Amino acid sequence: QSENSDKSSAESDSETEVEQVSVYHKLLATLKTSPESESEEEEDESESEEAGESETEMDSEESEETREADGGEEDKNDVPEQEEATATAEQMLSQEQADGADTSCDPSHGVVEEFTDVKHESEFSLETNFMEEESGDGNADKRDSGSSQAFSEDPFKQHMDKELEEKEVEKMSALPKTSTQSKWPRLGQLTFSSALEKHKTLKADKEVDVKQLYLHKPLESTWPRVNKQFLSSVNKPSDPFFTPLQRELFCIMNTYRDLFYPERNALTNGEEIRHAYCLHTLNHVLKANAQVLSNNTRRRNQKPGTDSDDFRDQGLTRPKVLMIVPFRECALRIVHVFISLLEVNDKKKIDVSNKKRFKGEFSSDPEEKPPNLKRPEDYEAVFAGNIDDHFRIGVAILQKSMRLYAPFYSSDIIIASPLGMRTVIGAEGEKKRDFDFLSSIEILIIDQADIYLMQNWEHVLHLMKHMNLLPLDSHGVDFSRVRMLNLNNGSKFYRQTLLFSALQDPQINSIFNKHCSNYEGQVAVRNVPLSGSISHVVVQLPHVFRRLEAESVTSVIDTRFQFFIDKVLPEYRDAIMSHTLIYVPSYFDYVRLRNYFKKEELNFTHICEYAKKGAVCRARRFFLKGEKQFLLFTERFHFYKRYTIKGIRNLIFYELPTYSHFYSEICNMMKATDSGVDATWTCTVLYSKYDAQKLAAVVGIDRTGQMLQSKKNVHLFVTGEN
């Protein structure tokens, strides 16, 4: 049954549009998110109507841009890939030819049945293996059995050995958290919060003494070599281990506090952050496994009849770390870092089971790369390599070996996408579902959380609801070895959550505030944007910010729609206001507006993430030539395609964009139009008091304060970059 825990139908991500939509809405239906889901059928109808219209040639630049396959989120094979960004990961894996076991590899992503490795079960079993004295890990055994002071100061030992009293658990469940502010040199403004009184504010280490980090062997010797690519000559010779950012992040991670870092950037710091959390993950897993193997040896050597309550060293299920990443390329890079950190030198290679299969299924095919299309640098960085978003893989690590495709209940680490988790967790009422393997997760890492807002945020919420629940089955666990914290259903109070995002967002904040109960407390980076992305608008353009009054967060959706059709749309109905692009972040708002425009028989066209190539071409052409007055345009289409839309003269942001730099990008599309007088261009933005974070990211913190206090519309005029 353990092999079946992570099986799924492995649906292909390149199915037809109708199938994509139905699967998407089936999932939404199970989660009861919106009554509007049935309106997608109308989308299909409208596409078929447009399909009958005559097709003419677009200009060469347009046709080059739209030569790719259709713009659905699920159709990922057409997105440009960045070979150079993936070269190191792929080269490293290809150099390792000494593969063990299964070398059968199906490079196609649509495998019929999900593969799990059953060959190496006994070799990687924690129950039946013992500590190798000559491996150097015997130190952990000596430190543990000798109860040395050094080992007792190890953050791992301190965190996992603490026994929470009932009144402390009650406090964490009932009382609001107390918070303190601190400013660190690199991270900036930090908010420390905790429900327990004994709350110490952490200070930033200016220099790192590697011995105080309590890194498990071989990490102490391999980390400087693996991480040197990020260290510049600017770094002091006294700190050959971390960049300033890594040092402060790892300082927090190593105390087992929860961490929210909303300034991850795929172009600048994404990889150094990935390396830092991979180091923390391996350090945790190696220590946990060494403790189990060490206790196995002690149990074997103990006299019969001795009390064995000293050996409580594991959870109800084996998986300790869950790493949520958006694409297969991310999983490939993580495994690459793991292998590099476990290999002491070129002579001491570690044995990695099923490596060839992994390389075939997780790396990208250079031949699939489409023609060179101009896309922003951040787009190329995010969508590098294999961008399939439906995957999960178990990883087991034991001393000098790594096992890829381990069954979940025999894994130490699970690397998965939100969709990969969603299909194995299943929904209520489904026969084939499993989430017991999440019962004893000790570290949860959610990287690039902002991308899940563009994929399907419901999958993340669904996952969080199933974290650290008591398992429905025992899965062969030895209860005499299970920590009391797990038996008492207290594992959620010991789980560390590391959350990395490119932006602050209420939905991401909600995950951190509502679903994280770590007794150690939380640290959130809370820097405010000073200038905002409006300063990167290079076209001369009047920006009118129109405030709408909503009574609550739940009512703002209806209030915005009513405000738009009553106050904003009438001003644009005149034929003079042609070439109006309406930017809509929410897909459900887009469906609602599209249905309203149809009912009112307005002259409009629309582009969303589910639109086929032909429909996108026609919509862009009609809009450019002025045959259609309005263009409804979804944020997710822009996220996945980043086409330049030509012919814009009037812009309406139905809601502020999720990514602040999309604001300047969309505004700057106006300069792509050859004809048109600058003075006639307009930009209107709808906002409410609940959009404070998004507003600050666009206009800067000073203007935001003024705009939220003022009840009037705000007019800003931007004269190029400033």
Automatic annotation (TrEMBL):
Main location: nucleus
All residue ranges annotated as the UTP25 NTP hydrolase-like domain in the record: 256-523
Residue ranges of the region described as Disordered: 1-158, 294-313
Ranges annotated as biased composition (Basic and acidic residues): 1-10
Entry's Gene Ontology molecular function annotations: rRNA binding; U3 snoRNA binding
InterPro entries cross-referenced by the UniProt entry: P-loop_NTPase, UTP25, UTP25_C, UTP25_NTPase-like
An example Gene Ontology biological process: maturation of SSU-rRNA from tricistronic rRNA transcript (SSU-rRNA, 5.8S rRNA, LSU-rRNA)
Phosphoprotein in keyword set: yes
Pfam family, one: UTP25_NTPase-like
Subcellular location: Nucleus, Nucleolus
GO cellular component terms given for this protein: small-subunit processome
Ranges of residues in domain UTP25 C-terminal: 533-717
Tagged with keyword Nucleus: yes
Domain of life of the native organism: Eukaryota
Alphabetical keyword list: Developmental protein, Nucleus, Phosphoprotein
Biased composition (Acidic residues): 37-84
PANTHER family for the chain: ORF PROTEIN-RELATED (PTHR12933), U3 SMALL NUCLEOLAR RNA-ASSOCIATED PROTEIN 25 HOMOLOG (PTHR12933:SF0)
Protein family (similarity comment): Belongs to the UTP25 family.
Function as written in the Swiss-Prot or TrEMBL entry: Component of the ribosomal small subunit processome for the biogenesis of ribosomes, functions in pre-ribosomal RNA (pre-rRNA) processing. Essential for embryonic development in part through the regulation of p53 pathway. Controls the expansion growth of digestive organs and liver. Also involved in the sympathetic neuronal development. Mediates, with CAPN3, the proteasome-independent degradation of p53/TP53.
Oligomeric and partner information: Interacts with CAPN3; the interaction is required for CAPN3 translocation to the nucleolus.
Name the UniProt record assigns to this protein: U3 small nucleolar RNA-associated protein 25 homolog
The species this protein was found in: Buceros rhinoceros silvestris
